[in-house]
Amino acid sequence: MIPNSAGCGRALYRKVQPIIDAVSRSGSGDRYRKHFMTAPHMWLLILHMTQGARRADGVGGHSLRHSYARIGADKKLLTRLNMPNWVSFSQLARSSTSRQADSFELLLAHLTSIVKRTPSLCKECKDQDWLFLNKVKALDSTFLKLSAKLSPWSIRGKHSAGVRAQWSLELATRIPHLVHMHTVEKNDHDTLGELVQADPNHFAGWTLIVDLGYYGHRQFERLLACGAHVVSKVHAQAAYTVTEERAVTQRKGWTGQEDRVISDQTITLGSPNNRRGAVLTGMRLVRSRSVGVDGQICSLITDRFDLQAWEVVALYRKRWQIELFFRWLKRQLGAIRPLGHSREAVWLTMLVGGIVALLWVLLDQMSARPVGMSRICWLGAVSVAIASIINLSG
């Protein structure tokens, strides 16, 4: 028996249902449609993705066709979703490809606002951890491979067919943000530059933890000018000059890798001879060595001098949380199998994945997950309860 799944599902449904009704009326997804409206479409896709990348019998992968068959067999559920006449699978697939995504974007924005307003944003973090991680984002992209035959629009040059979705993850609250989706000929560095140029205040006040894909001295200069902070690895060919040696502080047991800080320096980053780059004065270089067989040295740069050296290393180690989010999104929620082959369908897949991730954050804030149960199993159990609650509502 799943503890309290019905109560959690009821609370989650009551919080989400009014928002879905509001955004479905304000969006343009119902234009020129008579039978299959936006609100039931949202619920169908949410219930589909919350079941994860598995079938009910535990064999193979979970596809939209499996969800279509399971939901279509529940006539009472369809009635409560204002769908007296069940649509064909081809109509569901076409709607997932052609429906305007503005209602889903509004739902994602409203859910993000609700999660941010919730008092208990980080129940698993202690107060010191909350202060340490507050206003820190990990920024990265994930590649979604597509069929070159069915999605020819995603082919660019000699690159593999597919798209890259740019996400940021707030480390304290675990709130994901879908930033942008683009084809693969554009790299992460150029995409971030375009995002900063389009909205200079988007990352203002945040500390961005990035990998080398976003590295660039002129890029960092633009981010710092916009009021953002940066934590990144140093490029192997980067030129810098040490201007000050700082005292090194250690703290045991603060990362799973048991890193040891070996140096903390103030540097001038960049070379004046590089016309395409920039010279950044007053940057900080922190080196650490992992305690283990490999003993690898990690060199990090940042503009934050208010942190201890071990805190800078610990922040970068927490960047791995966004990699775990990508695995959860693609492998457990099943976003690796998009809702269709068009650009709109892939974008809708990312939006629904972000919506379900926010629903999980809401669920985690409202109740404790049973011990020994994974996040996707707990979310799937609550989604079954939501379907039953929809049957009883109305």
Number of helices: 13
Mean pLDDT rating:
83
Helix share, percent: 40-55%
By secondary-structure content and strand pairing, the structural class works out as alpha+beta
Strand percentage: 15-25%
Strand order of the largest sheet: 3-2-1-4-5-9-8-7-6
The Cα radius of gyration reads 23 Å
Number of strands: 9
Describe the sheet with the most strands: 9 strands, mixed
Uncertain runs: 55-61
Give me the strand/helix succession: HHHHHHHEEEHEHEEEEEHHHH
Gross morphology is: elongated
Describe this structure in words.
By secondary structure, this protein is an alpha+beta fold. Among the domains are: 5-105 and 347-392, no CATH class; 213-318, no CATH class. It contains 13 helices and nine strands. The protein has helices spanning 5-26, 38-50, 64-72, 75-80, 89-98, 102-117, 127-133, 188-198, 217-225, 309-317, 320-332, 343-366, 375-392; strands at 136-145, 162-170, 176-183, 207-209, 229-233, 240-245, 260-269, 280-289, 297-302. Strands 3-2-1-4-5-9-8-7-6 form a nine-stranded mixed β-sheet, with helices on both faces. Helix 1 crosses helix 6 (102-117), helix 1 (5-26) packs across helix 12 (343-366) and helix 2 packs across helix 3 (64-72). It starts with a helix and ends with a helix. Residues 55-61 have low confidence and may be disordered.
